[in-house]
Design a protein that fits this description.
It comes from Parerythrobacter jejuensis. This protein is α/β, with parallel strands linked by helices. Helix content is 18%, strand content 27%. Strand 2 and strand 3 form a beta hairpin.
């Protein structure tokens, strides 16, 4: 991969880091049957350093066929460290992990980026230890890494090109990322917007932490999309199949 410079601006790469199969209502109200969805991760190459937005499932799920292995599919080439190494990126060189939230399909690979500082909303970090939600596994994120707990918007590199902003509802401290590239603006939504249909129809999952907050987050994304941003939906298998993997993304070609 080419390296980001002042001339190229920020470069973004997408990876699938495992799959999970759940009732479709987990992702959108009224959904039928079950849906196998990707765990989505992104490498953000900034001239001043590397960041990863969400780290997918842990490599402990590779080859697992019982327990969560019945619903989680983690091919051996999918852990975030393996994905990065395939691009000749040293996982130890990643400076920042931006966790949209700390569920096991979003923070499972954190430990594979050993030198990174985790950027997470303070409310999310605290809730991850509360024991109220079984989708949190502290063995994924309570691992001794430096943690930068933020409140509200945060400018990661200090130049406005990579900004995290709160999008609560799925969890109390969920956040998304807005990225300015030479080819357009990207919004990495995470689980505040699972499917394209979620935004098109303003439809939430059947069970959310806070419905009013979730609806407000969808409205914020809708405004960004109307302004021209490319939304990367958190778990949409149809949309994700159109996103080039492990290659530099051109936002002008993303149909969101």
């Amino acid at each position: 991969m080419r390296q980001a410079t002042a001339e190229t601006g920020v470069l973004v790469y997408a990876f699938t880091c495992g799959y999970i199969t759940l009732p479709t209502t987990y992702f959108i109200a009224g959904g039928e049957g079950k849906t196998k969805v990707p765990a989505c991760s992104f490498l953000i190459d900034h001239p001043d350093g590397l960041a990863v937005f969400d780290t997918g499932f842990s490599d402990r799920f590779v080859g697992l066929e019982d327990g969560l292995g019945k619903i989680v599919d983690m091919p051996e080439e999918h852990p975030i460290a393996v994905r990065l190494e395939a691009l000749d990126v040293d996982p130890g060189a990643v400076q920042w992990i931006i966790n949209s939230h700390l569920h096991l399909d979003h923070a499972g690979g954190n430990r594979m980026l050993p030198n990174a500082t985790v950027i997470v909303q303070e409310q999310e970090w605290d809730f991850g230890f509360a024991g109220e939600d079984g989708a949190y596994s502290t063995q994924d994120f309570d691992i001794g890494q430096t943690v930068k707990k933020v409140r509200g918007e945060h400018d990661v590199f200090g130049d406005g090109s990579v900004t995290v902003f709160p999008t609560p509802g799925h969890t109390p401290g969920h956040q998304s990322a807005r990225i300015r590239t030479a080819t357009g603006e990207a919004v990495l939504a995470g689980d505040c917007c699972n499917f394209r249909r979620s935004l098109d129809e303003m439809k939430m999952p059947e069970n959310v932490y806070n419905a009013d907050h979730y609806r407000g987050s969808l409205e914020s994304l809708s405004s960004l999309r109307r302004a021209g941003a490319r939304i990367f939906y958190g778990h949409d298998p149809d949309f994700w199949s159109t996103v080039p993997q492990a290659t530099e993304l051109n936002m002008a070609t993303i149909q969101s």
